[in-house]
Input
Amino acid sequence: MGDLLRIIGNGKDVPDHPVPDGLGDKDLIELYRWLVLLRSFDERAVALQRQGRIGTYALYWGEEATQAGSLYALEETDWIFPSYRQNSIGILRGVPPSVILAWWRGYGGNTGFYDTRHFRTGPICVPIGTHIPHAVGTSWAAKLRGERTASLAWFGEGATSEGDFHEAMNFASVFKTATIFFCTNNQWAISTPVSQQMATKTVAEKALAYAMPAVRVDGFDPLACWKATKDAADRGRAGGGPTLIEAFCYRIGAHGTADDPRLYRDESEAEKWKSHEPLGSMASFLERLGVLDASGAEKIRHEAKQTIIDAVTEMETTPTPGLEVIFDNVYAKNPPWMFAEGLEELRSVGQRELVKPLNAPDTQTEEEGA
Amino acid sequence: MTGSTMVEALNLALHQAMDADDRVIVLGEDVAKTGGVFRVTQGLLDRFGKDRIIDTPLAEAGIVGSAIGMAIYGLLPVVEIQFDAFVYPGFEQIVVHAARYAWRTQGQVPASIVIRIPFGGGVRAPELHSDSPEALFCHVPGLKVVCPTTPRDARDMLLAAIEDPDPVVFMEPKRIYRAGRQEVPEELPFEFGNSNGEASALLSTARTAREGSDLAILTYGSTVPLSVEAADHLAADRGIETKVVDLRSLFPLDVDAIVSAAQECGRVLVVHEAPRSGGLGAEVSSLVHERAMLDLEAPVLRVTGFDVPFPQFANEDDYIPSVDRILQGAYRVLDF
Output
């Protein structure tokens, strides 16, 4: 791990490096606030799943630096494409957290949706690696239109086995698009360790095949993630082409709430990595710098918690989507004729009205008599 | 010879769309410098330059995926898939993203792309250059799937497909590419970018290729002209007048045209080149039985390709529905 870009030390044997140019005290505090907000969302979402208030959830505990750090380096006009591991990234661009929670609650229609173009934030991408070419497409289109705009896609090391990753890398390097390939190498794809995912020692070296610069950073270090992304975006927007960033870290949590890592790995290993998690190290770093003290950090954590509590209330007071939602917006224009028939079928059968079990006693008469 | 071939008509449509709206952009394998292996995109490079028509690396998922990204950005990409079966590497992008982007984004950001696919056999090509994969796309909610069979329709429907905000899989029967000519007026069929329903109609309605009221042949693509030829035989040999309906829109199907043809004729034959099981013919036949059962004098029969890989081309004429097979099917329906 000696070749990893790292800025924040551990306050003991690993020294701090200077804060990169471009980040003032306010930025550092804001970046910490972003990390905390992501963490609050994630922890609350896991709790909500355990309580049956949302469905299966893909957690990202410990990977906040790869998300907040890289996003903080981008301009608002840059496009971002999250996978499900970065599912809540939109909240850092103004998407209400309740919308993301509603998505995990299985709500379609307007409730589980944010405007991709308005926020320049792709929808949560479920199929692995398939959103990477979209980041190439937006940055390519921007280049063709003479706009200096970068695009970033987040994905895991498992996604680098997919063809879409390689096709996207190739297109980006051939057409010199301002695309940032941000790989969070957390070393686990559900139960598959990175050693079984690839024969290369690093993800970064895959960029060699595409004549693309690559950089490896400590994925637990938000400032390292920021620095690598900032350099890549600046270079890309200036016409220098794409960059592959490998943010090396560890998936401290499970793959998702339905996953039990004890089945395939020694959890004491995860426990060891836990001390690397970015919120604690960022808070200590800011304290060492004299930028944020313990009470300031506590205030930020409290505010974030409240934001998410409010979002949960909002999510839970959102009306259950109606029948018509399943037909809504499948087509932007001219829905096909069978949609009206489908809705009529649901209505005529009394969908969602209780159907009496076959052997249930007939209570109808009693009620009528009472 | 006057008039245009389908290839020329498609080429005209691309020129006209790119002329009308600078967001229209063409990408694919060998589309720019060579003008495409079928020359559909010939001349576009000289006219519009390398930023509007782009030769891409040989990677269909990358082509379709990038095009989706361009559409998210706000461009209107037209993708050429070189041959039918080459679309399979791009299938995931079409199914999981192109088809779902409007739904996923509440109609705000449909993947406004057109995927042009030359398809079908009859051109003496090697393996995987002659497939008819249209039913695969018809089974994917969120896509519109169309197939013109005349030069005029090819031009008008391609313009409509580019204008339509939804992703359109545009099937081009390559056997018809240069098979005949038709007058295609320079004048646009509708005001591009501002059509009043004309473009939608072109993407959702069938066309009557031949009038008749004794038998209806419902078909699309390369078997339309074969069905018309069979109909002419039926008229000459037995005095039977056959209505041939060119479906044009494969999803959604023009249910009114299909049902009214069945009601009018009482006897229906469905013809297509694609394999039979799970093909469009099954859907069309079901629609007729569900909605016009009491008007029928005979069950709906199908003449189609077989449930086998498209054969090596020494046998392709044995696979593609011939006029004789269509006639045999017609007699079975007529003599039931």
About this structure: Chain A has two domains: 25-316, 326-369.
